[in-house]
Design goal:
Elements (H helix, E strand, L loop, with lengths): L7 H5 L6 H11 L6 H10 L2 H16 L2 E5 L1 E4 L4 E2 L10 E2 L11 H9 L8 E4 L9 H14 L4 E4 L2 H11 L3 H11 L3 E2 L9 H7 L6 H13 L3 E8 L5 H18 L2 E8 L15 H14 L5 E2 L3 H4 L1 H7 L6 E4 L22 H9 L4 E5 L5 E4 L7
Parallel strand pairs: 1-11, 1-12, 2-5, 3-4, 5-6, 7-8, 8-9, 9-10
Antiparallel strand pairs: 12-13
Length: about 375
């Protein structure tokens, strides 16, 4: 993408650059932290080529052209949910549960058995908040998965799911997490963060765990020796200051614990939900958001573009705007974004597909595990 082809040196030499933007570029060059005011300024004034150059400089310094992915699959136990988030196209209310799905224990274990003998390294378990799928049910599921395939890393349950399970079980966050950890849970995804600021959260997802609750669960996960991811839902009714506030809170917790593996901006998709009247962000807005996230989130080593949500072509473009991770092979095992109108209606990519996508932009694909340990570095001649 030629828009981000300029080097940081070329950016600093631009005579027309406003002083406040020049100061930000100098901070990037000196590896200094941006303030929240700097973050808002980038959203207000930072043109795509400018933020792209800064973000690409940071990504090259951190990763030297490597782009990570893993071999994973998803289990979505149910889309029946007690919560009513206005942006959600995925869930069905409990009173309309006949319109949704509820997987039984054996059905989910069959999904795991399907990958017997295949080199997948992670199962990702996330879904709606079903009142009858409680803590005991999921602990049994975790135990059975771990007994069947001990080498499979289990990443499961958003803070929203966990908060509901623990409250219903009358357990503290720490006691609930310890119970799940003993059953086999090894890390948790970043879902449910949406936008932390109460002015926005109250409008789009008022009835589920708030920002403080989400952050407490992730802090406790980290304190127990597990890792997690962090997300942010963008491109709906939020303003720039809400995005920066959200990223700043994540950055503060990362300073404290160092337990986040990566940051994943998630694009609002507007089909089949209560916010369908809101236009989606453009590709330019997507790329600017990823670039600014890379610049601002200085203590997050990894920035992920979740390709089933963006579509593989836009995800490929983000690799020139600070992104260094594409998630995984997925293998058509998630419906969360296809139900909201994403380009990927049957999200599956083979390892060769991902490698070809990465090689096409002059970068090096690297298979990783959940914790970003490198498993295999690919060269073009290794791909069929």
């Amino acid at each position: 993408m030629t828009l981000s082809a300029k080097s940081l040196t070329e950016v600093l030499e631009q005579s027309h650059l406003e002083k406040d933007l020049l100061k930000i570029a100098e901070k990037v060059q000196n590896q200094e932290r941006l303030s929240e005011e700097d973050g808002v300024l980038l959203f207000e004034k930072g043109e795509l080529g400018f933020v792209g150059a800064l973000a690409n400089h940071i990504a090259e310094r951190l990763h030297h052209g490597k782009v990570y992915f893993n071999r994973n699959f998803h289990i979505e136990p149910t889309n029946v949910c007690v919560f009513t988030c206005n942006f959600c196209s995925y869930s069905r209310q409990y009173k309309h549960r006949d319109d949704g799905w509820e997987l039984g224990m054996e059905q989910m274990l069959d999904m795991v058995r399907k990958y017997d003998g295949q080199p997948v390294t992670e199962v990702h378990i996330v879904g709606g908040v079903h009142p009858k799928m409680n803590l005991e049910f999921f602990c049994e599921l975790l135990s059975k998965i771990k007994a069947h395939r001990p080498d499979l890393h289990i990443k499961g349950f958003t803070a929203v799911e966990l908060d509901y399970m623990f409250r219903k079980a009358k357990l503290s966050v720490e006691d609930g997490l310890k119970k799940m950890q003993e059953a086999g849970l090894q890390s948790i995804p970043g879902g449910g963060a949406e936008i932390f600021h109460p002015d926005i959260r109250q409008q789009i997802c008022a009835d589920k765990v708030d920002a403080d609750g989400w952050l407490l669960i992730h802090e406790t996960v980290h304190r127990l020796g597990m890792h997690s991811n962090a997300t942010m839902l963008y491109g709906h009714i939020e303003k720039y200051e809400h995005l920066v506030d959200h990223m700043s809170r994540l950055r503060e917790l990362q300073d404290k614990t160092g337990g986040f593996n990566c940051f994943i901006p998630l694009k609002f998709r507007n089909q089949n939900n209560d916010m369908s009247h809101i236009a989606e962000a453009s590709i330019v807005e997507d790329l600017r958001l990823y670039a600014i996230a890379r610049i601002f989130m200085d203590n997050f080593r990894n920035l992920k573009a979740y390709w089933p949500m963006l579509g593989r072509q836009t995800a490929q473009l983000t690799l020139s705007f600070g992104v260094n991770d594409l998630d995984g092979t997925i293998d058509d095992s998630t419906k969360i974004y296809s139900m909201a109108g994403s380009e990927e209606q049957n999200p599956a990519m083979s390892t060769d597909d991902i490698c070809d996508l990465v090689f096409a932009v002059g970068k090096t694909p690297v298979e990783r595990d959940t914790l970003y340990n490198e498993i295999k570095v690919y060269k073009p001649e290794m791909v069929a």
